[in-house]
Design a protein that fits this description.
alpha/beta; homotetramer; 20% strand; 425 residues; arginine biosynthesis (chains A, B, C, D); Argininosuccinate synthase (chains A, B, C, D); ligase (chains A, B, C, D); Arginosuc_synth_type_1_subfam (chains A, B, C, D); 5-stranded parallel beta sheet; 2 domains; Arginosuc_synth (chains A, B, C, D); 42% helix
């Protein structure tokens, strides 16, 4: 009988790794409570609960965090068009803070001395979890078995885990693991490791779980309409279904269903992890991809140019990096997000989209904001515009450039060099 | 017989507008030389030359600027992943500087006192042309008829132009104009004005010129391979054709042909012009779209994380804005582009792509640069990695966040609020 | 008797220029109301009122805008450490928006069709005034006589103005102008033009108005204490005077008096105007200089590193440029300032300063915020710090750099070259 | 007799810490070579060499790195106006890369398996040294005794070191240490730790070593002239001495001497270390402070506005952070510095300075670059400027703001609120 080292709240997934960790923590002398978060992943929560208790968890907690995941994490990221390294929509990064907060809440209430997780020692998620824990409860203690030599040396390789599971009577569903790892939630699924570690290996067709292959998607396009208020989706109209969705979680689910059907939202990249290692990841972010296209398009119609430029260069980039690196519970995240509402006040209107075999095509957009003025931009009428004003504008804009060109010319530096020009007269 | 006011070099397109401007300039007392640039647009140059001389141009110049367009303008933009407002690949912006330089060169050689163009007074291109003129030759004088009241009041509307053309014996091919304006070059075609001024009008199918509609594209995907050296495309392999392209202009043309076939590169946006007016534009940038996807993907494999982040936030954004606003011949453009080579030294390797109905899908990538290390990133082996190091890393990273959280807690501000958590034991 | 062209509200200074403009506007057929703003400049307002009415103004308005100048304009600039081109504290830029708003308010109430000002056609202030007018009341009409050829050609040179003043019975106090122009308010005074146009001319001693020369300042230093809450000064303690100041306007005035005495706040620069012209300006910003030193110092003690870095690169630079270019009443200004409060929540505490002959020297600072931890940073005790953590931190930080160095070495590129090293053994 | 664990190159200072480390490394079984860098600090190198060899070093190396310190490290930082957190000129950060490179060069030549240093486990310098080592020679092994528990636990506190020194026959000059730590080089000296750990303690007068107190500086100002080419100082003229300095190292020394005399270059701050700990530091950067003032001033006269703005926001900030955090040997440093030459091509001319009791006052500047044009900026003449152009410029600039204001008005949001305005008529 081991000594009682204290109470641990373990982020439990129901899989082989965290089940073994659960057993090992008990073996090490801890009392273990198991915690699962429902952030929209497909999961047999009842089976997981049963399994956790069977393996030895004293208590099991299931937190439905879908709504706060959507409204607190996903929404600001949508408003700010967050993206990491031009491609990755941050699906896993967005879920970690709500899960970590859910855990700290239970750990607080239940008097847990420790929190624990099954993340590997090379990835981003350990960092995201732990920085979130510390940012919420700076005196919490963390047990990360995959960074503890006694654990990772003992359980090097899946065989060692399977053997331990057998010894501990831990039920195992698959003795052969999929040749990649996944993380799934309402926003996306990620695939990494295993055969994907060769960046030149094309992911097999049967890997992709949340979307139809574009080749297998319907041969007819489907039209939908998205409505935004303050940069947030407030309605999805799906004429084919004769349906409208207005609830935040339902909007997301509906967009996921539509994108899944039409093969939208797959990416395959090599990214740079926070710890400085390059890593290959494949992701499906179905509904989020549609939402991003629509939101950015509506901003074209409704957002002031200079606000957009400043937001793109700072808010978008800063918030994306903060989310990726796990700095959600930080003063800089509060600072960066504090400016988002001001940027989205005018982002009101609708966007009409065509979904077709991997493509999200904007077919039109409309708003009553009034920043777009067809008469003003028209090439067919003056619309109150004085063309002579532009002459003054260009003249002033050229002052600085002329001075520079004169200065270069005075030094004998010319911008013009001989080109192939053929003349006739 | 009007007085001789001097010699004008006119940017001539062969169309109704610039033909009327040509005639009007002569009427106003100028001697006019006509200038056309071949930047890859589909054009009957011989017919245009004939027409210009017939209308009264004293000389006609045709400059083949395709190669310098590709190597001097497009290439740095590809290396820097330039994009305006997240969507527009800057096709027109990229061509203006080489055209303007071609004109200044001819104006210099031929002793022209003026340069002239047919751009409207509300658009970006007048600014791009004129700032380029002034940045190359600060004492050049510019005649912009669409900003001269005597001109734009006299020729308000197409009918007035048609009537003037009839009077001046200017041959007119289409008495009914297309309900939009276009600008075409090797990189792209743009559509704006006319029916597109309502941002909620879906562009008609027959507008799109450079690409097949995704719906009409082949039902089978096609695979190609792109090779890059220092971030520039050096080879396109098209297995279906059993062909390879290695010349800069041919690479671009080959990618255009492939993208056209597979319906790749259409966009439809509302953008913010330099003069502060919102404007709706549709664009086809076929080959450029493929190139962008491939280049960004290879950067994932081969570019250092911090270089990428700095380049994205600084070079990409600054250069895109400089190009869009017509500041190519400026000290800030020289400053910004001077850092590009250093950012692309490691961007060497190949990218394998699948083209299918509007989609450019990365299927794999390879490089000998060695910044990606499968063993290091592997979840299955340590690969020289010490997991305990990450504990130290997280510990140091959390110092600042813990202090902040303690400070908040001392003020009674908690980051954790009640959530829906259901527990069992 | 001229026709009645409408009612104009004129920004009136009481000087020769705006008095002549007043008379000229009447001559041109306008009914003129005169407007003066008290933003803390030294001025005989009663005399100016009398003069305006004598010259022919139908009404005279004096708006005391000192408090809103301090609390609405200066305070956010202090919180964000605003500065233009590393040196200029933006004193004139900060005053223009409150003056413009005061004018629009009166123009609205009094049914004025126009606003007018006496700014020259080459400067920043015309832009700042007019963009503020348009941002507040987009349909206001502006009369800028110094940009109207009939005016500026007629009144080219001071002699023409003096002659007109004589004709119009406008009282003139100085027939010989100072050889520079000034703009003064509670925050600063600017000097430009005249003899200062040669950037190599040292400003004469008698030009400086708001500060003692450092050479003439007291030979003994003086100590003061500044207290901040949320990044704003809430108290100035002046032990020598046995006084404390807590009112916003009084704090500013007290700091001005102290800085004046000790020769603090002079600068002399060549700056870049919004219109692209380089211009030489000298400025005295006495109290503002002390405030800036103290605020930045306290941020060192109390502001999170990452918030500070993001704020410096984004908020400070963006807001400074917005203010300088006259974009105060704009969506981007609202966007940028919306993030300031979040950045200043922890900037609470006191700073102890020594003022001495042009120097503002920090002698110490204190705060109860708790982000600084003497034990943690101590070199003499561990203070809960695990030095081994840093080993992990450095190890992780070096992953990326080692990969890069290996990649360079594989290409035969070495970072080490021969240096002069002498060895003994 | 301990086993031979290999050869170590130790960064040796001659002080108590590194002498004890030298002895301890020998005790631990290493063969130790001692390395000293001359980066301009005041030091008895001969005594240090003698001491190192006496304590047991097998070889001693002295590298004179002053010139490369100035030309390779300091110069780009001067050109880019590098500064950390608005105040710190990076003196220590700049020296570390050249010292580390000197060590790696010797380690390479002499076949050392390890490098070692005496930096503490909480500071920046350990990170700067080690990241530099790894960036130059990724397989080098580092021994950092102050992060090795057996060392830091054994030698906790100065007494333990003194006792060990006595046991090991290590000569000790001061048995009572100064109540702060210092790091000195040609650029600056830093003071931290000890009594300075209370940020509210005013540094004692006798701490400051490189500068006279402003109170004690001469009562008469001294004028000097600095000449720059491409943003680098090429000549210092000191009329009082009837001397000119043109050699890079001599220029720096001369400026140090002048600044020392006139009390220029002291700062006292709380800064944020790379590891996230706040730390109080005092610094004297005498010559560097003069150089910075002069360089920035000349940029006002000679550098294009947009280049300056981009450089300030990116190059300056990025390079300062890179230097501070010890990322000098990195791809991002190469990227960032690659753009500096392009930014400095026009920074040619002279600056006239007055030095007086802590103040560096610009009295004038001159350049033949021609970007400044007195006639153009003049308020007294048009100088080729058309004031009507500005009307067009403002009109175009206001388009966007008017639209925004109209949009706000349409929603019933007004920018104007009631203020205290008193009117008379």
């Amino acid at each position: 009988m081991p000594e009682n080292k204290g109470r641990v709240l373990l982020a439990y997934s129901g899989g082989l790794d965290t089940s073994c960790i659960l057993a090992w923590l008990i073996e090490e002398g801890y009392e273990v409570y198991a915690f699962m978060a429902d952030v929209g992943q497909e999961e047999d929560y009842a089976a997981a609960e049963k399994k956790a208790l069977k393996v030895g968890a004293k208590k099991f907690f299931l937190a439905d965090l879908k709504r706060e995941f959507v409204t607190e994490l996903i929404y600001p990221a949508v408003q700010a068009n967050c993206i990491y390294e031009n491609v990755y929509l941050l699906g896993t990064s967005l879920a970690r803070p709500v899960i970590a907060r859910g855990m700290i809440e239970v750990a607080d209430k239940e008097g847990c001395d420790y929190v624990s997780h099954g993340c590997t020692g090379k990835g981003n998620d350990q960092v995201r979890f732990e920085l979130a824990f510390y940012g919420l409860k700076p005196d919490i203690k963390v047990i990360a078995p995959w960074r503890i030599p006694e654990f990772y040396n003992r359980f090097a390789g899946r065989q060692a885990l399977l053997q331990y599971a057998a010894e501990q009577n831990i039920p195992v569903q698959q003795t052969v693991a999929k040749p990649w790892s996944t993380d799934e939630n309402l926003f996306h699924i990620s695939y990494e490791a295993g055969i994907l570690e060769d960046p030149n290996v094309t992911p097999p067709n049967d890997m992709w779980k949340l979307t139809t292959a574009p080749e297998d998607a319907p041969t007819s396009p489907e039209r939908i309409i998205l409505e935004f208020q303050n940069g947030l989706p407030t309605k999805v109209i799906v004429p084919e279904q004769q349906k409208e969705y207005t609830d935040a979680v339902e909007i997301f689910s509906a967009l996921n269903t539509l994108a899944r059907k039409h093969g939208i939202g797959r990416i395959d990249i090599v990214e740079n992890r926070f710890i400085g290692v390059k890593s290959r990841g494949c992701y499906e972010s179905p509904g989020a991809t549609i939402l991003r296209v629509a939101h950015m398009d509506l901003e074209g119609l409704t957002l002031d140019r200079n606000v957009r430029a400043l937001r793109d260069q700072f808010t978008t980039i800063a918030l994306s990096r903060i989310l990726y690196n796990g700095h959600y519970f930080s003063p800089e995240r509060e600072f960066v997000t504090s400016s988002i509402p001001s940027s989205q006040r005018t982002v009101n209107g609708i966007v009409r989209l065509k979904l077709y075999k991997g493509n999200t095509i904007v077919e039109g957009r409309e708003s009553s904001e009034g920043l777009y003025d067809a008469a003003q931009s028209s090439m067919d009428e003056l619309g109150g515009f004085e063309p002579t004003d532009t002459t003054g504008f260009i003249s002033i804009e050229s002052i600085r450039l002329k001075k520079w060109a004169q200065s270069k010319a005075a030094k004998g530096q010319s911008g013009v060099t001989a080109k192939d020009v053929y003349g006739s007269s």
